[in-house]
Amino acid sequence: MTTHHYPTFALDDIANLRESAQVEFKLASGRDGNGKIPEDMWETYSAFANTLGGEIILGVKEHQGEFTIEGIVNPIPMLSDIWKILHDPQKVSHNILSPTDVQIIEILNKKLIRIHVPEVDVKLRPIFIGPDPYTGTYFRVGDADMRASKEQVDNMNKRAGLLLKPKNKS
C-alpha cells in the first residue's frame, strides 16, 4: 500500500485556513456557547478513517467560505464526551484514536480541539457510525463527507474478509 504524504497546515495562518480532503473545521460551540460535539463530526471521523485520514479542528467558524478561530470556552467536558462515544459500539464501530490523537491546542489565546484521524487498514474497514455499516459508512470526497453506497460497503467488507448482511426491517 502506498503511503500518501500531504503537507501539514498551519492553524495560525488565519488568512489561508481552508477545508480540504484532509482538513475539516467545526464550530462546536453548542447551544450555551460553552462547547458541544457537533453530531456531523462523526461522519467526518468515518470519512477520514475510510479514506486518507485527516484532521478535525473544533472551535473554528465558517461563514461564506471564510474561517475564523472562535475557540471553545470549556473543552474538557467535550474531551470526555469524545472518548465516551468512541468507546460505545452503538455509536462508533471502532475507536481508532490513541490518546495523542486528541488534543487541546491554543491559538490566538483561544482553545481548540484537534483530532487526528488516521487512515485505517483495509482489514478494519468500514469504520461507521451507528449500529449499521450500510447507513453509517462515509468517504471523504474533496472537502465533503459522502455516505457510502451499499456496493462500496460490500467491497470494503470483502477486502476486510467479512460478509455482512443488511439488518432485516421486520
TrEMBL record:
InterPro entries: Schlafen_AlbA_2_dom, Schlafen_AlbA_2_dom_sf. Keywords: ATP-binding, Nucleotide-binding. It holds the Pfam family SLFN_AlbA_2. It comes from the Bacteria. Coiled coil: none annotated. One of its GO terms (molecular function) is ATP binding. Residues 19-147 form the Schlafen AlbA-2 domain. This is ATP-binding protein. It comes from Shewanella aestuarii. The lineage of its organism: Bacteria, Pseudomonadati, Pseudomonadota, Gammaproteobacteria, Alteromonadales.
